[in-house]
Design goal:
- The protein is mostly beta strands and 124 residues long.
- The chain contains no helices and eleven strands.
- The strands form two sheets. Strands 2, 4, 5, 6, 9, 10 and 11 form a seven-stranded mixed sheet that branches.
């Protein structure tokens, strides 16, 4: 019943910024932690950032720490990912995920609700 929809992806140059948004709809009352993952074709899905329901617990992958910021607005039922200082290694399909678990796990299997993904391409 819960659906997630990402937006904000696009084509940018190295050093630029993008802000991704994930909008939740449906029966969202059971959602606790949410996270962003990314995937390059042929490679494993990679954890990017996660956030607990209240925003008190936030986790980042080492590769994005200091550059990306995850936030959420439960009243608007959205979670955002501000991405700064983008480089070519950030090129991927970014997906939003949700789970009833309390903590934002870096493991994809912890999430049972996924968005369709949005493409981020960084050129140099």
């Amino acid at each position: 019943q819960v659906q997630l929809a990402e937006s904000g992806g696009g084509l940018v140059q190295a050093g630029d910024s993008l802000r991704l948004s994930c909008a939740a709809s449906g029966s969202t009352s059971t959602i606790n932690a949410m996270a962003w993952f990314r995937q390059i074709p042929g490679k494993e899905r990679e954890f990017v950032a996660g956030i607990s329901r209240s925003g008190g617990i936030i986790r980042y992958a080492d590769s994005v720490k200091g550059r990306f910021t995850v936030s959420r607005d439960n009243a608007k039922r959205t979670v955002n990912l501000q991405m700064n200082s983008l480089n070519a290694d950030d090129t991927a399909v970014y997906s939003c995920a949700a789970t009833s678990l309390v903590l934002p796990s870096p493991t994809g299997s912890a999430y049972d609700i996924w968005g369709q993904g949005t493409q981020v391409t960084v050129s140099s």
